[in-house]
Amino acid sequence: MKDIIVAKRDGVARVTLNRPAARNAVTLAMWRELADIFSRFADDRDVRAVVLAGEGKDFSVGADISEFDSIRDDKQQSADYEVAVDACSGAIAALGKPVVAAISGYCLGGGCHLALACDFRFGDRTAIIGIPSAKLSIVYGVRSVQRLLALTGIANAKRILYSADRYPAEQAMSMGLIDEIHDDASLAAERFLERLADNAPLSIAGAKYMLNGLSTGAGGLDLAVAQQLVDVASDSEDFREGRRAFAEKRAPRFRGE
Question: Do 55 and 143 reside in the same domain of the chain?
Answer without folding.
Answer: yes
